[in-house]
Amino acid sequence: MNVSRVILHFDMNSYFASVEQQANPALRGRPVGIVATLAPGACLIATSKEAKAEGIVTGQSVRDGLAIDPGLRVLEVDPSKYRSTTERIFKIVSQYSEAVELYSIDEAFVDLTGRARSLAAGAALARELQQRIKSEVGEWLTCSAGVAPTRWLAKFASDTAPKAGVVTLDPNQLDRYLAGRSLTDAWGIADRLAIRLGQLGLTTLIELKRYPVINLIQHLGVKGYELWATLNGVEMSGVQSAEVQPKSVSHSHVLRVRTKSSRFQRAVLMKLCEKTGQRLRELKLEARSVWVGAHYLSDQSISRRGSAGWGGHQRLGIGLSSSRLLYRIAWSILEPGLSGRVATFLVVGASELRPAGRQLDLWPQPRASNVEAALDELRRQFGQSSIIWGSMWAVESQAPDRIGFRKTIDRGQAWAGLEIR
Questions:
Q1: Rounded CA gap, 39 and 62, in Å?
Q2: What confidence tens digit (pLDDT) does each residue in 348-375 have?
């Protein structure tokens, strides 16, 4: 079938664990779990296909995983290894199209229009890409792929494809593919939205596809039209190869060291603010709002590993991207609640973003200094750890780099506690 567009979406299978198995052949064929930090009560942020086959899934505690299989090999996340592997994969992907949207560290959309004149030709390219990844990057690395005339259908096909398989969604055959699928099988429909749709008597995707669009709009507004359009093969966005300005920038960290030391907490917070500020400067953006949060062990339940939270936000009269200013504001919010407590998790975010330097304030305000710009350039050339603020000295060994991944649909249990944007 000739179509106006041919969109490919691919998603690496059990990515973090597969990269570890590729790097260490002794792990191949064995259940592997990845954690953010090797600390008591850690949760699994990724699992291998062997672990999943045993019922060990993302979001479970290591304790529960070991109860299922005492032979589960637990490894701490290794961001540099995953990033370098992703770079090698995307060098291959870029040879197929200039329009590539990196959706997360292990998945992407590729507009094959022009190179593939039919969905069948697109599926052939998807299989070729799968084989090249295995032969040129690693034999233990597989991906699922979906090919369709719209971005949404391509991801839906990939999400529902067999591991290492390819699914082609022809809109003329879509009803047969949707038959028997529940609402939450679809990308973007979570439990809360499914409940609202259930109030309309809708429980399956085929019912949603056939439901009068005007009724959906009356009940759900624009979202109602988007749901109807995506299921009926109407393109809503296309492959977004250029980076869209984010609504916010944030970084978070689960603390490996559990201590009341404010010096250590401030060092980790400074690291998060540095990463946030650096990202703002990279995007040439300024923030007019800063928010920060923390989890800490509660006094009443330390023995049960219970936790409580503290945080807040501050709206600014200026736009800023300075790491040092972000840190001063964030610590002023956190200090009253963290004093004398054992912090377990910290997060810093900047929002209400605007392009930097395009609008003059009534009074001159501090912006990212030339010093910070120079530090950014040094890190680009020599690595993130090549130069750091004195307050961050020795924190890297106790609060190492972390990596984030975005998922809008999950085959198992969702767990986004360590998401880093």
A1: 10
A2: 999 988 888 655 444 444 444 566 776 7
Domain co-membership, 178 together with 306: no
Q: Please report the sign of the dihedral spanned by the C-alpha atoms of residue 362, residue 368, residue 374, residue 376.
A: negative
pLDDT in tens, 79-104: 889 989 999 999 999 999 999 998 88
Q: What angle do CA 22, 23, 26 make, to 5 degrees?
A: 80
- Residue 253 · residue 272 · CB < 8 Å: yes
Say how far apart CA 316 and CA 45 lie, in whole Å.
35
Residues belonging to the chain: 421
**Whether pTM exceeds 0.85:** no
DSSP state of 97: -
Burial degree of 232 (CB within 10 A; 0-12, 13-18, 19+): middle
Q: Is 384's pLDDT higher than 90?
A: no
Q: Do residues 205 and 185 touch, judged by C-beta distance below 8 A?
A: yes
Q: Average the pLDDT over 174-199 and give the result.
A: 92
- Beta-carbon contacts of 328 under 8 Å, excluding residues fewer than 6 positions away, are none
In a domain, 10, yes or no: yes
Which structural domain, as residue segments, surrounds residue 208? 171-238
Q: Same structural domain for residues 219 and 306? A: no
Longest dimension (CA), the chain: 66
